[in-house]
Amino acid sequence: xxxxxxxxxxxxxxxxxxxxxxxxxxxxxxxxxxxxxxxxxxxxxxxxxxxxxxxxxxxxxxxxxxxxxxxxxxxxxxxxxxxxxxxxxxxxxxxxxxxxxxxxxxxxxxxxxxxxxxxxxxxxxxxxxxxxxxxxxxxxxxxxxxxxxxxxxxxxxxxxxxxxxxxxxxxxxxxxxxxxxxxxxxxxxxxxxxxxxxxxxxxxxxxxxxxxxxxxxxxxxxxxxxxxxxxxxxxxxxxxxxxxxxxxxxxxxxxxxxxxxxxxxxxxxxxxxxxxxxxxx
Length: 281
Description:
11 strands, about 40% helix, alpha/beta, D-Maltodextrin-Binding Protein, domain 2, single chain
């Protein structure tokens, strides 16, 4: 199977690297698995400074992989294809339960799910979306699950509106900008990464309470010493000029520890996502 290096993947080859499975190599690089909440190009461009820093600190090649969708990503996680995992907390719960992945760190800035409409939209109240079309990223994305729960508390149940799955958060909001959907559900981090000219075309209609942010975990095949070396490398990166720029761009707020029982709060979302994934053929 073909294998592509992270640093020099323009165009079509870059996209291929996001969807093929990582192949074993003689140098056995560490595989950083990034869950597919961004486009392939965004994932590579945003995370290559971090991968570079890990390579220097760990003295071991690091390659970035993701998957074409959440179902594939969760399946590859369960198969243990990622040495270092960057994923949402509900999928982190599944990774720990199914495989034994160990949480290392999370981004300190909490995230929220955002429901956005066009800035010039007449919609001012949630009830106005009854019978309307809402674009979503992957239906098992935490932002989508949390927003659906939030809308239900305001009397807008899942049967009260139509949804159209768009794959990524960017695709979902473009459905709104292009007039193909009345609203879109997306996460705060992808929203922060939008160019200003896109953000100014949108208005936030509703948001969820704060949620734990993306988490880094290591596969149990990395022993305690290796896991701690990865943790130390991540913290060192966060304190560097490149890391500070990385954190500022994404609005991540640096790193924080994952509390012992923190993942437990995401068990309901994790089980909901698992059930939905099992229903997808």
